[in-house]
Amino acid sequence: MAGNPERRAALVDAGVEVLAREGARGLTFRAVDAEAGVPVGTASNYFTGRDDLLRQIDSRLHVRLAPDPAVITDLLTRPKDRALVTAFMHDLMARATRDRTGYLALLEMRMEATRRPELRSSFTKSVRGDLEEAMEFHRGAGLPGGDDVVTVLYLAMLGLLLEHLTLPDVLEGVMPGVSVPEGLVERIAETIVPAK
What we know:
single chain; mainly alpha
């Protein structure tokens, strides 16, 4: 196994690009090599197989899509109310929109996990860990609502992100006078998060 960490990271990011654009069936070592602009056979020196590449893509997506600690620190200076939760949801939407490719790759990972039991197990653990971390963060920050609020927010935002990043026209005008996605984020928070 080759040990150049910069090259490995570039190959994993190339894998994210291929996965988002071509889907899991298009994710081959040859496609990753081409996307990364490296000689054919390079990816096979860095990953033991496709499952290894998918696991490393999963890990990389957690880094790419993670909130900026400075943004979190700044937001946490605000009152712990529905408006703050809404600001966190806007940040989530902004991060996914900025790294649309990363988020689409994450959705492709979900689809591939439905077909591959070995990936399903590790990906389920990864996503469940994210949800539990969100619950812990919500509790620790003293935000309104409990784990049930976080779970319903998670489900609502997952649906909004899916539509906004794949078929955005589905949501246009569905709620007259409500902008997409910003206004819908506001509506989700108003509907789910208690005022205090």
